[in-house]
Design a protein that fits this description.
The chain is of the alpha+beta class. It has two domains: about 90 residues, Hemagglutinin Ectodomain, Chain B (Alpha-Beta Complex); about 60 residues, Nucleotide Exchange Factor Grpe, Chain A, domain 2, CATH 2.30.22.10. Helix content is about 50%, strand content about 20%. It is built from two helices and six strands, in the order H-H-E-E-E-E-E-E. Strands 1-4-5 form a three-stranded antiparallel sheet. A three-stranded mixed sheet has the order 2-6-3, with no helix packed on it. The longest helix has about 60 residues.
């Protein structure tokens, strides 16, 4: 026997159970959305890491440019300290300023390249002169004319050197 619905009731109020096919479709959509969410989260995490790394690199390069402009000052102070003369207050002041500058370089991760006696490396040294020598090894740095500087793993300025050439 057919059941009659009361007047004014709507058939859409009656819940119908989804078929197996509809359940599989809904599960597939759910899985696809979950997979998409996981990929978007991974992409966002990668973007955040890349952005942080780029900001760090930018800061490091900005520091490198500022340090490059200070290198001639360090060279001038070093030359002033190498000048012959007696110990005066002025010389003591220059020594103090030079030590402060070197301490600041060290705090920022700057290392001085003084490769005297080491093999010549064109990636770190700039050969200004090849000096003939009867003794010693060929292609060794005889003298550092101007020190080089490195900021962490980045070369700021190569060391200007005189290189031995065996005769």
């Amino acid at each position: 026997m057919d059941r009659e619905l009361p007047a004014g009731s709507d058939t859409s109020d009656v819940a119908t159970a989804p078929t197996q096919q509809e359940l599989e479709q809904i599960r597939g959509e759910r899985d696809a959305l979950y997979d998409r969410l996981a990929r978007l989260q991974a992409e966002f995490d990668n973007f955040r890491k890349r952005s942080s790394r780029e900001q760090s690199d930018f800061r490091e390069y900005a520091v490198a440019d500022a340090l490059k402009s200070l290198l001639p000052i360090a060279d001038s102070l070093e030359r002033a300290l190498q000048a012959p003369g007696e110990q005066t207050e002025l010389r003591s002041g220059v020594e103090l300023i030079y030590r402060q500058l070197q301490d600041t370089f060290a705090k920022l991760g700057v290392t001085v390249l003084r490769p005297e006696g080491q093999p010549f490396d064109p990636r770190q040294h700039e050969a200004v002169e090849m000096a003939p020598t009867p003794e010693g090894e060929d292609n060794r740095v005889l003298q550092v004319l101007q020190p080089g500087y490195r900021l962490k793993d980045r070369l700021l300025r190569p060391a200007m050197v005189r290189v031995a050439r065996r005769i």
